[in-house]
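Final report, closing paragraph on structural work. Over the funding period we assembled a curated collection of sequence-structure pairs, and we close with a single example.
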Amino acid sequence: MKAIVIKEYGNDDVLNYADVERPEPKADEVLVKVHVAGVNPVDWKIRNGVGERLGLKLPIMLGGEIAGTIERIGDDVRGFKEGDAVYGIIRSGGFAEYAIAKMGDIASKPQSLDFENAAAVPLGALTAWQAIFDLAHLSSGQRILITGASGGVGSLAVQLAKAKGAYVIGTASGRNEEFVRDLGADEFVDYTKQNFEQVVKDVDVVFDAVGGDTFERAFQTLKKGGFLVTSVEFPSEEKAQEFGVKSARVHCKPNAEQLAAISALVDEGKLKAHVATVLPLVEVKKAFQLSESGRTRGKIVLQIGT
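Its predicted structure, as stored:
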């Protein structure tokens, strides 16, 4: 089967579109025929060398977000059968014609989505869910600021927060205002025209999907006792104490139960992902370049099978 493999860390030159042996599922695993895979910053960060820090061993088959159909099931698998349409996040090997998933990694694909759009959901939605609900404990009626609200993660966070009944303030560039407001944002701040920390005050929660200077300035928008959660930075306890708030970084983990709840929200029309670009697997280098630019609205996905 075809797959994207790296044998060393580096730039796009280390990406190999290669023939590899099709894996076989263990007792608690399923073999998924991958139709579409989502591209995420973690993919090119692994290529850059983060894979070593994550404990991955070279050679590495890249890709962690998939949508497809179950080809084979392990002996201990319950609740799924061959031919079922599923989606989820896996440890590695998603940029391939077939991939292995453990039972806790996947859920039934939302019935209202095709594979292309389904592949844009799992990682972003789970990251946002675990950030604003599991860590920050966002509740109905609270005010939340979401930076990078037009991105793959931020756009899903806006919708999840609205579904919870929160008041949502989103930041992005002005060209994305209509997009962010259509997602349900109650307020919009164009970061290219004004400093958001000067106009946003006393929020209960900040979800930062941008990092850098944006992350540092976001502390100023929180009320005392508020919570700043980020998907891209490593917050310091000292900074949080300085502003009288709490802070944490979200590390997205596979969670089939949460993914099933996300599927239900999708099918109820309360959550949708925006696919920005669809490319064939062989054009993975172009996909990485688009992702690294940081200017893509929504999700980049790789078309692999049918």
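The chain has a mean pLDDT of 95. Residues 122-135 form the longest helix (14 residues). We thank the funder for supporting this effort.
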